[in-house]
Structure formats: C-alpha cells, structure tokens
Amino acid sequence: MVHFRLHAGVLFFTVVLFPLLCFGIRSIPSRGRNSGAVEVLNGFRFAEAPEYRNGRDCPVLRTNGRSVSPCDPSLVHIAMTLDFEYLRGSIAAVHSVLKHATCPESIFFHFIAAEFDPASPRVLAQLVRSTFPSLNFKVHIFREDAVINLISSSIRQALENPLNYARNYLGDMLDLCVDRVIYLDSDVVVVDDIHKLWTATLSGGRVIGAPEYCHTNFTKYFTDVFWSDPDMSGAFTSARRKPCYFNTGVMVMDLVRWREGNYRGRIEKWMEVQRKTRIYELGSLPPFLLVFAGDVEAMDHRWNQHGLGGDNVRGTCRSLHPGPVSLLHWSGKGKPWVRLDAKKPCKVDHLWEPYDLYISNSKGHLLSSQ
Fold first, then answer.
1. Inter-axis angle of helices 263-276 and 285-292, to 10 degrees?
2. E-assigned strand segments in the chain
3. How many angstroms separate the most distant Cα atoms in the chain?
4. What proportions of the chain, in percent to the nearest 5, are helix, strand and coil?
5. 309 to 96, 315, 329: CA distances (angstroms)
6. Rg, C-alpha atoms of the chain
C-alpha cells in the first residue's frame, strides 16, 4: 500500500509496504543458520547489531499492535537519508546512536530514501530491519523531481545529489504529529546520549539549533556577485545578530515553526535565485545560511566535530578540534570507510571503525529489487 500526500505543490510518497517498510520493529530477532550476519545486497553483508534495551527510568512506549506509534510524545525523532552509496556510513551512525543512548528503544528513525536509488527503498528498509531487529523506524520515499530543477552545479559532484536537499522537506514528509526532529548526516558517529541534544532549548522562536562557528570567514561561501548586490547581501545585514557559519549535517529542528513559517519555500526561493545568477558554489548549505544564519540557537561545539573528511577537493586528513566530543562528523570529501578499505586511513578514522557493522569478505553487488 502506498500513501500519497500533496503538500504545497510538492509530491512525496510515504511507503507503508508491510512488512518491509514503515515500522521495522521486532521484539525478538529471529535467527537462522546465518546468525549474526545480514546479506540483503548480494555480497554486501552487515553483522546484526547487538540488542539495545531501555533502562528502568525510560518512558513506557505507546504501541499500535506490535509497532511503536511515531506520534508517541516520549520518542526522540532522528531523520537521516538512506542510499546505497552512503549505506555503510548510515548503518554505523545508527549503531552509534543506539550504543550510547540511555533509552535506545525510545528513538524513532525517519529514513529518507530516493525513489530511484540503485538499491530500492524496499531493499534498503529490509537491510535496516535485519541489521537492527528492534529498531523503530519508517522509510519515506523522496521524489527527486521535487527538487531536481532547483539544483545547480557544485564544486563536488556528490554535493549535487538530490538527497542532500531532503532536509528541506522534512516538514512535508514527516507525520504532522512529529513536531521536532534531529537531522543527522550519514557520515557521523554519536558518542554521547542523543537525548541530551534532543532536549536542547530553541529560544526566542528559533526554528533550528546547531553549533555555530563565528570565527569562520563567512564571505567565502558566496560569490562576488552576491556581495556586490545590496539586495541579496542585505539578507545578512538585517539579521538580529551577526551571521555565523553552521554545518547543516547536525541540526535540531522545530517542525511546527518550520511549517508555519514556510521555511521550505524560503530556501527554495534562494535556490531559484542561484539558478539564474550564480551566488554560491557549495550545494545545499548556502541556502540554509541565507535563511537562518544569525538566527540559529547555538549548540555546544561538542555536538558537531565536523570537517574530519578534509576539504571538498582533496579530502586530506584533519585532527580533532580541542575540547569534549559528543559527535564526530566526517564532512568533506574523505569518508572513513573508503580510507580504511584503501589501507590509507587518517587517525580519526579509527574512531569510526568500532561502529562499522560491514563484513568485508566480498565485494557488493545489488540484488534485483523486484
């Protein structure tokens, strides 16, 4: 069964193909002869994750039969994209969240999958379900044609992937009862209890919260054409405080305020400007900066130790920033699983490795999704 929803001119699918999509939940994992290993993509194998259970002080969950209702107010909601290219990173990210959570069964994942990914959403959902048998999750299918005509070329082809823009549409895709969500990129690992980030306050009517970096040269994210046009550059001078750089790979989002303020439409407006006049070079980040920089709830830097993948061209090794760490983020060109497989890892890549569930005894080939 497929449900269609039309919202403000954009069409999305929320797939409810039982039992593979929608809520991937089983209380007790069924183990066959290949116990401990999951192979949904031919030769592309993942070990089954340990069973993570709630502690005594965790809330009792509201269920619909066997499934946890996404409308349960006690849940922590996390949204991530899910595709074949970054699948290994996504699996590691989920594993890290569960491993360090005090109430892992109280976390609900919303995976955004492309309609025409090399691995179909059905196959991806089956893999998640098999790797994490007790995980509460739902797979939302993202129609790439909703955004494809708004995407302009970037300095790195990977930044042009339509799924990079899926975060713009979370207010449309997620259930209306979901009023807050943490968005995470697929190249992160969490080494702290995610509930600490979930409970962060968004004060003064702010829509998103993220670590800010005000020492960064903000001007480099936009072209000379942008800065020479007072109408466009005025987007920052009218901000309530000095605009600062923030990374969109880790955000706490108030979806009620997002929907009420039509922030998806505000971001799309700047993307339309970019299609006519080139005002930036970096994919999906600059439109977010244009709309939110200067009005972001500043989170502790420990929640996004970003840049571990190096720059967007060479992907050279970088060290951790000074201070405590709750989340590691391999933003940039270099990804830890690629460098580890190539036997050319950076030191920080070994911090990602314990969460990797991939079994690397053979090369991956896609099974038919039929």
1. 120
2. 2-7, 10-15, 37-41, 44-47, 63-64, 67-68, 76-82, 107-114, 136-142, 180-184, 188-190, 208-213, 245-246, 250-254, 297-299, 327-329, 358-359
3. 67
4. 30, 20, 50
5. 18, 6, 8
6. 20
Q: What are phi and psi of 14, to 5 degrees?
A: -110, 115
Left if phi > 0, otherwise alpha if psi is -120 to 50, otherwise beta: which for 294? left
Which residues, 6 or more positions from 155, have their beta carbon under 8 angstroms from its beta carbon?
Answer: 281, 282, 312, 313
Residue 95 is given by DSSP the state H
Q: Cβ atoms within 10 A of the Cβ of 102, count?
A: 13
Report whether the peptide linkage leading into residue 243 is cis, meaning its omega lies within 30 degrees of zero: no
Exposed/middle/buried for 6, CB within 10 Å: 0-12, 13-18, 19+? exposed
Rounded CA-CA distance 291/270 in Å is 8
Query: Which neighbouring-strand residues pair with 282?
Result: none
Confidence of residue 351 (pLDDT cuts 50, 70, 90): very high
How far is the C-alpha of 325 from the C-alpha of 38, rounded, in Å? 31
What pLDDT, in 10s, does the model give residues 280-311?
887 788 999 999 998 999 999 999 999 999 87
Q: Are 8 and 172 a contacting pair, CB within 8 Å? A: yes
* 260 contacts 190 by C-beta, under 8 angstroms: no
**How does pLDDT run across 173-194, given as a tens digit for each residue?**
999 999 999 999 999 999 999 9
Q: Which residues are bridge partners to 251 per DSSP?
A: 183
For residue 291, what are the CA distances in angstroms to 46, 263, 269?
39, 8, 10
43 backbone φψ class: left, alpha, beta (φ>0; ψ -120 to 50): left
In DSSP terms, 213 is beta-bridged to 245
Determine the Cα–Cα distance for residues 90 and 117; give it in Å rounded to an integer: 15
- Torsion (CA) 255, 257, 261, 265 in degrees, nearest 10: -20
